[in-house]
Amino acid sequence: MSHSDPADPGTGGPAPADPGTGGPAPADPGTGGPAPAPAITPYGPGQPAGSVPEWSQAAFEQAFSDAELAIGRFNLAVFGKTGVGKSTLVNAIFGEAVAATGIGRPVTMGSHLYVHRTGKLGIYDTQGLEVGRDTERIVGELQRFIEHTRTLPFSEQVHLAWYCVRATDRRFEDTEAAFVRQLATLELPVVLVLTQVPGRRDAGGQLYLAPDVLELARQIEAQGLPVHEGRPVLVNALADPFTGVEQHGLLDLLDASFRLAPQEAAEALVAAQKIDPARKAAAAEKAVNSAAAAATAAGFTPIPFADAAILVPIQIGMMARIANIYDIPMERATVASLAATTVTTQGGRAAATGLLKMVPGIGTLAGGVITGGVAGSITFAVGHAWHRVCIGMAEGKYQTVSGTLDSQMVQRVFNDELAATVRRRGLGKRSR
Ligand SMILES: Nc1nc2c(ncn2[C@@H]2O[C@H](COP(=O)(O)OP(=O)(O)OP(=O)(O)O)[C@@H](O)[C@H]2O)c(=O)[nH]1
Ligand SMILES: [Mg+2]
To answer: Looking at the domain 72-272, which fold is it?
Structure first.
């Protein structure tokens, strides 16, 4: 998938539904017409184009890198006076200590863009420079950065800015308004954020915000700034048990960011954020459905059971995509994928047939042949089972006391979910 193809962010890694390109089609039984089977992207070292790859560590890692590249990176610029809570806000939405004091490695020497460990998130942070005092320098450097990255791949560009104002300061200075207007002239979409907004919920869950902050928000809105919906988003990133002030507004800020950020950066933002599991689940479902559709197409010409490895690149691509959506590091995802599909116990043997043996009911298939519907159903079930595993890993589950991955547990969760999905949907139904 290219970044200019936002219409279908679900197809993982290789493009399995692209008939007729590259190499001999392995499942074409010589009809002479255009091959109905998809071209297979080779995975793993030394595999000739068109050959059916094995399910191996190298194959998964390759697929993972492909998915990583396709998803790209979401780059967020964060501005505001010192101490307003920029780093705290970034940490609250993207998890861990993303924006701790040491905030990662700058992409290039002297640049303000810092890339987070797993590569899905870049934070442009002009630490040490102060809006008002250093406005000219900040804008100048940002402008140079934007011009420099304009010719680079999309994932190198800055996609969105948050301008943060601390609500409890009860003021929004003219220099800040001027700065926000300058950001807009650089064609950078801006979300204005009021941070550290005191708020409490009543027994019914209704949120009440401090009246003076609402007044400040109205004053800011009256200035007609070129920001998201013309008004600030009100948040509090840290709960304070002492005063009873609650965390709130983070999802509003994330939603505003999704609405304003370019479509091509959306899946990276889905992957990078840690507070909205529904968005991750939806992206994973999409990957599953499009892989199931590709598998259905691959089985359009029924595949002999033994040739089921033709489904390998489709399923590996799907699994790699989902692991990326859950921002699971490559090494962990690879180990888990091998554990889940029990490939390790089979000495790296071809896969799909091994995987197929795990699917309940598969032994009863007529003629030992897999049709499109069955191929789609299996892929759908594998996708669901792997999705479940990824959710667990993202929640920090399946760890042994020493912190390594509990392979047996991963395998059990995968198998149980696989069986449950097949029981629920049966085999041979078309994927949704
Ligand atoms: N109660 C509460 N405290 C907050 C919140 N956000 C930040 N703080 C506190 O405010 C202080 C400054 O927060 P930072 O996130 O470091 O602020 P910053 O804007 O990154 O500061 P600089 O990097 O120096 O520009 C810290 O002590 C935070 O704990 C919040 O939402 N609620
Ligand atoms: Mg900071």
So the answer is: Rossmann fold (3.40.50)
